[in-house]
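This part of the workshop introduces the protein records we will be handling. A record pairs a protein's sequence with a compact description of its fold. Comparing a sequence with its C-alpha cells is the quickest way to learn the format. To make this concrete, we reproduce a full record directly below:
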Amino acid sequence: MIMDGGSADAGETDEGALTGRRAELLSRRSFLIGSAVGVGALGLAGCATSDGMSVAEAAKLYGPVPDEKFPIPAVDISKVDPKYYRRTVRYDTKEAPGTIIVDPGNYYVYRIEGDGTATRYGANVGRDGFRWSGDAYVGRKGEWATWTPPKEMIRRQPEAAKWARGMPGGLDNPLGARTLYLYQNGAYTLYTIYASLDAESIGTGITSGCVGLLTQDMMHLYSRTPVKTKVIVLPA
C-alpha cells in the first residue's frame, strides 16, 4: 500500500464496480466501495454454518451498528465463507497477549489472548506482487480517517485526483471506520489494517498490501489494540 500525506491507499482491486450501490462507485480497493447490503440469510436463522455458528449468531455478530458517526450496515453474511467468521481458536505461541499475527496465506488475522487461544478474524490481503512480511507495530490509530490518494495512484487512475486534498471519513472512504497504521523503527510502513464493507473481499488477495477486516471485526480488534502493539505479518 502507498500513502501520501499520512493517509492510506487502502489497496486496489482488479474488478470493476459490483452490484447495488457499488455499481455507482469505483472499485472499493482501487478507489472506494459502497455499503454492504443487508443480512440476506436471516430467514435461515435455524441453520448452522460449517464451523458450528448458527446463521442467527453470525447475523447478530455482523449486524448493523447504528450509533456510529456514520451508521454501519449489516454484513451480508451469505457472501462470507463461514470459516472467516470471528471466533476463538487454539493458537500456541510465545508471543505476548495482544500481539497481532497476520497470516496472509490463509486470509486470517489473529489477536493473541494469552491462554493458548487467539481471536481469529477473516481478512483480505495483498494481491500477487504486493504482499509483504515482517515485524511491525501499531504506530497510530484512526477513526473515520481522511484518505488522500497518493500521486502514484492518481497517475494510474486520474479520477482519483478529485480527492487529492483528502477524502473525508465516511462509508465510502477506503480506510473505513477504523484504521491501524503499521510502523517499523519509528517510520510509517505505508501499510494498514483497515475496516472493509466489502463482504466478498474476505478470503481474497485484492489490496496493494494492506489487510482488511469486516468493519464489525475491525472495530472489535481496534478497541482492544493500543498504540505500540506488536504486529507480525507472516510470509504468504
Notes: Residues 79 and 200 are 6 Å apart (CA to CA). The chain has three helices and 13 strands. Helices lie at 55-61, 151-156, 215-223. The first strand starts at residue 3 and ends at 4.
